[in-house]
Design a protein that fits this description.
Length: 78
């Protein structure tokens, strides 16, 4: 799949379930991004779990700026 054809998914919330959901979406072929309003310093363990997975992230800001163009949006229950 080319970058243009790859569906995009946004996971809102980077807790354990959010990182797991993003990793699963990546394995299913999505261009997955996780968003959390917490700063990177507060999410070091979650960031370690995503290392090398191909999942992107935006931290320290609300998700509303990243929803456009997403095929799927997942809200982490945390």
């Amino acid at each position: 799949m080319t970058q243009e054809m790859t569906p995009k998914a946004l996971v809102v919330g980077m807790a354990r379930s959010g990182t797991a959901a993003a990793a699963m979406l990546r394995r299913l072929g999505y261009e997955a991004t996780v968003n959390d309003t917490k700063p990177p310093e507060a999410l070091q363990e979650a960031l370690k779990s995503l290392a090398g997975s191909g999942v992107g992230y935006t931290l320290g800001c609300p998700a509303d700026g990243g929803v456009e163009g997403q095929k799927l949006i997942v809200s982490s229950p945390g």
